[in-house]
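Sanity check

After download, print the first record. It should look like this:
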Amino acid sequence: MTTGSRVEAAAAEMRPGDLRFVLRDATQAAHRRLDAGFAAHDLTRRADYARFLTAMNAAFAPLEAWLDGADARRLPADWSARRRAGALRADLSGLGIADAGDSGEALPPTLSGAEAPGLLYVLEGSRLGGQVLLRQVLASPDPVVRENARFLRHGEGQRLWPSFAAWLGLHPVSEHADAIRGALRAFALFEAAQAAGYAGPR
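Expected structure tokens:
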């Protein structure tokens, strides 16, 4: 099923409500696939952690770059404080990876500003799972792994997810289909990065 047909099916089934929960329901399958793929990594091991961060960077870098160029009215007021691509690059550098590359997947030229909330939902939602992954990283016997957790630690103590969820709740039902399309595109970018099978140092 194409992205367009998935969006249409999800939009047809959705009911008026908080955009956060509409997006959660519309992206459940993509979320499960992504989680299952990353579950195969043991983030206490430097090689696995490097592959994980490289895949994250391959999606975060183009998504954040696109959002940086989007209409500011489509973004949370604190967008600049939410960006994490810099933290990812710093972690990769600390692991000895100077050039993480990219996923080979470009954001479609037809991407619209109305899809920004969906892209952001995927980026910001990753903070929740990141808290679980951080525990793995901090339990690593490898000090290089433990010392390069800027990405997973980003925003600690700032309640960034609750404030983002509140921002999503302000979006009218008329914008839900566009947001779903954006979220599915973001998940597709992450899946492509994951499937590329990046290899870190062994």
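If your output differs, re-run the checksum step. Summary of this record's structure: The mean pLDDT is 85.
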